[in-house]
Amino acid sequence: MRVLRIGQLGVTTHRRTFAVGMLLLLVLVGLLLFALVVGKADVTVWDAVRAALGIQVGAPADFIVGQVRAPRALTAILVGAMLGLSGAVLQSLTRNPLASPDFIGITMGAGTGAVLTLWLIAASSLWITAAGAAAGALLTSALILVLAWRRVIVPLRLILAGIGVGFVAQATTQYLLTRMDVHDAGNALGWLVGSTTGRTWTHVAFAAAVLVVLVPVLLGFARALRTMEMGDDTAQALGVSVGRSRAVLAVCSVLLAAAATAVTGPIGFIALVAPALALRTTRSAGVALLPSALMGAALLLTADQASQLMPQDLQFPVGIFTAAVGAPYLLWLVWRASRGGPS
Amino acid sequence: MSRLEAREVVLGYGDHVVVRGVDVAIPDGQITAIVGPNGCGKSTLLRSLVRLLSPRSGTVLLDGEDIHRTHTKEVARRVGLLPQSPIAPAGITVKELVARGRTPHQKLLRPWSDTDETAVLSALHSTALTDIQDSIVDELSGGQRQRAWIAMALAQDTPLMLLDEPTTYLDIAHQYDVMDLLHRLNTRQQRTIVMVVHDLHQAARYAHHVIAMHGGQVAAAGAPSDVFTEDLIRRVFSLEARVLTDPVTGTPMVVPAHGPGGVR
Q1: What is the CATH number of the domain that holds B250?
Q2: Which residue in A137, A230, B35, B165 has the most C-beta neighbors within 10 A?
Q3: B111 or B242: which carries more pLDDT confidence?
Q4: CA–CA gap between residue B29 and residue B193 (Å, rounded)
């Protein structure tokens, strides 16, 4: 155990969790530097860092790093963290390692919202699309939460309602795509695969603001979340208000997924994989929120860089990349579960 | 004296009423056993005594105050519960599990304290788990795992401990291990213990006070020797039985009056 203190206040963490967290933070800084420096335009590390901080260093760094690479990399980090947190909370609440906002309809709802906006307004502004996606995600989330509500939120109902709502949303999206003209449909499809391309400082600010509001709430309820993993009765007997805690946590998880999807479009598998990897590396008994966030950030930034490093004609959006890597992992989890091993 | 009492409580789930107006007082500093046939409402009653279930009518009083007006955390500092099938998080060690018992004593942004550590170490010691405190709970034997859960409830450091069928699924030696442990906690640490048990023999041996329930009501309550009569066993369990005297402890021992196949 390790205690981090500021005066009277402090938190206790396991040495291993702390070490993994620090390591992930280092990796993240390394990846960020890599993302700022590596690319077609040559920029020195020093110039890249200063340009990212908004200091004028002259062309090409001011634009390439300051307006393109930095916001894109930070978007990947923040959205990855949101997805990691959202997945971690959902998996813990449902006591199911396969639970993830990708599978419970929130991402699909965001897609429907975005495509509907593109169809109605026919504007390709990322902002209008993002607003549509956010509205779609919030509406589907509200629907899922209402359907899962039986005086308290029933975790299994949350998953089942989510799957059902997700299918309806997906069908709607596909119907809309067939009704759009080819140009708009192309735009919509481009958005639907999930990408960090063209994201600006405004996107970064939005994602950061959502995290600044929701992370303290999640951390405040982290102990309740861990305790609820031992069963509702045990948690209640240990002084946790199960109904209230679960409602707050479910709403936070859903909001994070909605906000993440609004920024980048649907990016699959990060929310599924990051919490599981965080658990495996920290060997934490029970949900590891901050490691999941860091893991999600590192995974999405890595995926984003990897997809950019592919040869020009092989480059594809990061959403496809995460799916290509995440799907085999999911199959592996299912295979292990079917063999009765620990999940 | 009773710190924990139920007065005229009616309990149920959905449309189904399980406990129909029950008065019980849990004697302080003693072991109370709640017995009765399946579905008689004994676990339901136990759950209401720790606020897991709110009564349709009637009240549960903890230290003379309505338990439902008492904050969840405050209840958890006074009454501990070991539910029937708690879930051990994957990969948790014995010590980590026991440490979870400190939850009601912790505050946001307050680190693990010396009091917490002492409570956990002493719980591990009383349950003879000190040597295997770093083992993974999933890998323990049934008896050890049950002791680990009891240790968690111990670390919670509540004067009242409630246990729902603490010996189910254990072999006979481990059942008596758990019972002996509860007896020690009662005599050495003056904890008030309430347990739901199926085994009447264990109830008679270890409890000071027995509450026999039938059809959602209390059929009898009192000392084991007063409660366990042939008449009561017939009324509560619909079983013709003889009540003998345990040759070791002198407590009542219930045996069926018929041989295998119903032949006398």
Answers
A1: 3.40.50.300
A2: A137
A3: B242
A4: 8
